[in-house]
């Protein structure tokens, strides 16, 4: 069961599932548009709409974070890079079988002098928890070859972070 629901979570599609399906459709049909939007939403089309004014460059990914029932960010592991191996940032690759999804794990990073520098989200002595101060340093993303399959009914919230070009289809 997800988010305190008392019914079988597979019998009804939740809002997180609907949003992830919408993001997948938007990514699949990426089209540039010059509309500006006052309050960014995960349902916005086209890719690039999450920043105001709308981006004029190419975007192939809507980066998002999933939240667990307790409000904590869901995390997954990726093949380590400069001591970073945990991420809370994802790209949807596929949605199937009543709200299961394959998500690509994205490397969180920041830009230092135009160079991508990975951000270790579990920095410090506490290796069990996401360091939210480190999350605030993230302003760039890079795709990994690591994917995770999840039941979208197990999450209570989704937050879209940015539209970016990860060169997925290049």
Model description:
- This protein is mostly beta strands.
- The chain has 2 helices and 8 strands.
- It has helices spanning 15-28, 132-135; strands spanning 61-67, 76-81, 84-87, 90-96, 100-112, 115-118, 140-151, 157-164.
- Strands 4, 5, 6 and 7 form a 4-stranded antiparallel beta sheet that branches. A two-stranded antiparallel sheet has the order 1-8.
- A hairpin with a 2-residue loop joins strand 2 and strand 3.
- The chain is globular and about 40 Å long.
**Percent helix among the residues?**
10-25%
- Note the gap between the termini: 39 Å
Secondary-structure element sequence?
A: HEEEEEEHEE
**Given the C-alpha coordinates, what overall shape results?**
globular
Mean pLDDT: 81
Proportion of strand residues: 35-45%
Would you tell me the structural class of the helices and strands?
mainly beta
Rg, Å, rounded: 16 Å
Low-pLDDT runs of 5+ residues are 4-12, 31-37
Total number of beta strands: 8
Annotation field: number of helices: 2
- Please give the largest β-sheet: 4 strands, antiparallel
Keywords:
two-stranded antiparallel sheet, 4-stranded antiparallel β-sheet, 170 residues, 8 strands, globular, mainly beta
Could you outline the blueprint of secondary structure elements for this entry?
Elements: H1 15-28, E1 61-67, E2 76-81, E3 84-87, E4 90-96, E5 100-112, E6 115-118, H2 132-135, E7 140-151, E8 157-164
Antiparallel strand pairs: 1-8, 2-3, 4-5, 5-6, 5-7
């Amino acid at each position: 069961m997800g988010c305190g629901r008392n019914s079988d979570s597979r019998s009804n599609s939740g809002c997180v599932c609907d949003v992830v399906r919408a993001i997948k459709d938007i990514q699949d049909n990426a089209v540039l548009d010059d509309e500006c939007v006052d309050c960014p939403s995960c349902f916005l089309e086209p890719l690039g709409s999450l920043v105001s004014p709308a981006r004029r460059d190419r975007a192939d990914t809507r980066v998002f974070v999933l939240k667990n029932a307790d409000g904590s960010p869901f995390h997954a592991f990726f093949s380590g890079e400069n001591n970073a191996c945990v991420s809370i940032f994802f790209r949807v690759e596929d949605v199937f079988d009543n709200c299961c999804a394959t998500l690509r794990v994205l490397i969180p990073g920041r830009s230092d002098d135009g160079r991508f520098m990975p951000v270790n989200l579990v920095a410090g002595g506490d290796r069990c928890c996401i360091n939210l101060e480190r999350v605030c340093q993230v302003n760039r993303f890079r795709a990994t070859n690591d994917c995770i399959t999840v039941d979208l009914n197990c999450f209570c919230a989704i937050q879209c972070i940015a539209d970016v070009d990860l060169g997925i289809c290049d």
